[in-house]
Amino acid sequence: MLYITDVGPRDGLQSQGTIVGTEGKRALIEALFAAGLRRIEATSFVSPKAVPQMADADALLRGLAVPDDARVSVLVPNQRGLERAVDAGAREIAVVLSATETMNRKNIRMDLDAALNTCRETLAEAVRAGLRTRAYVAVAFACPFEGDTPTGRVVDLALQMRAAGAEEIVIADTIGAAAPSDVERVLGALLGILPAQTIGMHFHDTRGMALANAWCAMARGIRRFDASIGGVGGCPFAPGAAGNLATEDLALMAHQCGFETGIELGAIGAAIETTSRLVGYPVGGRSQRWLARAQA
Questions:
Q1: 34, 270 in Cβ contact below 8 A?
Q2: Are 271 and 34 in contact (CB under 8 A)?
Q3: What is the pLDDT of residue 190?
Q4: What pLDDT, on the 0 to 100 scale, is given for residue 240?
Q5: What is the pLDDT of residue 251?
Q6: With respect to CATH, is domain 3-295 assigned 1.20.1090.10?
Q7: Partners of 39 in the beta sheet?
Q8: In angstroms, rounded to a whole number, what is the distance separating the alpha carbons of residues 94 and 101?
Q9: What burial letters (b/e) apply to 138-147, b meaning 16+ CB within 10 Å?
Q10: Is the pTM of the predicted complex or chain greater than 0.85?
């Protein structure tokens, strides 16, 4: 089984110039559920001033109907964000730790040590509250400000997040700079220390290599991936970060290679159409046209 977390409602929408209303976000999440997605990152409890698109996180989560077999996660930047998420009914949270000093300072105005401590404290509090937990190690391959990220640092931060209570460590190619050889290098170091089932991958498609990188990770035994419906997304704090790996592309490749995902490819077109309507322009991964013809 391949487990795909669709991050479109959060990572996909957060950098869009058009503010999507709460009902629109809810419609997108419902369309993803209807297509068989059972893991969705719905929103983030960050400062509305920093990310206006996520200002309705509380209202969105409170009004969301979640199937019994589905998991909805939310991103929280700190303990204050965690408190808001718990009040809104969150059952699964994620923290984000950038692997470089400059990215942390540009993103959250903290140095790496302070950001690490904040993530540790937030994870510990989430565990005490009985929540499921994920931890992103961002810019794990390259940073827009510092260049290549040292593999040893990624491994060290991943281990510290795991020790702090993260059930899943998500290695994020935030700016889409990685090639399959980079994925091999980082996973080669991580898999000697962490079980494959505790590792997830988050790829951006800036250089057109996200799907190849995903296949490389699959070949190494990774079964947990982030993807975004229609390939929408990008980090507003990372210059040059283009859209995410498209959910439909990853699901199609997985199906053709014999992996179950639970996603109904014939129904995913409706979610892509909903996304296009909400952002105001056509979206879709590389397989979208083929999927549309196959459905027709």
A1: yes
A2: yes
A3: 98
A4: 56
A5: 98
A6: no
A7: 71
A8: 20
A9: bbbbbbbeee
A10: yes
Q: How far is CA 141 from CA 16, 58, 80, 180, 209, in A?
A: 24, 33, 29, 11, 13
Give the tokens for residue 7: 């991050």
Whole-number pLDDT of residue 105? 95
The pLDDT of residue 295 is: 83
- In terms of C-beta density within 10 A (0-12 exposed, 13-18 middle, 19 or more buried), how is residue 189 classed? middle
Burial (CB count <10 Å: 0-12, 13-18, 19+), residue 195: exposed
Q: Do residues 93 and 153 make contact, with C-beta atoms less than 8 angstroms apart?
A: no
Reading the block at residue 286, the tokens are 């590389």
For the chain, the domains span 3-295
DSSP summary character for residue 149: P
**Hey, is 12 helix, strand or coil?**
helix
- Clarify whether 235 is annotated catalytic: yes
User: Of residues 119, 143, 216, 235, which has the active-site annotation?
Assistant: 235
What is the pairing mode between strands 168-173 and 3-6? Answer: unpaired
pLDDT of residue 188: 98
What are the beta bridge partners of residue 3? 224
> Which structure tokens are listed for 149?
């990220």
> Dihedrals φ, ψ of 93, to 5°?
-130, 160
Q: What is the C-alpha separation between 154 and 161, in angstroms, rounded?
A: 11
Mean pLDDT by runs of 10 across the 296 residues of the chain is: 98 92 98 98 95 97 97 98 98 98 94 98 98 98 97 98 98 97 98 97 96 98 98 70 88 98 96 96 93 87
The enclosing H or E element of 143 equals: strand 142-143
Q: Enumerate residues 6+ apart whose C-beta is below 8 A from 160.
A: 116, 120
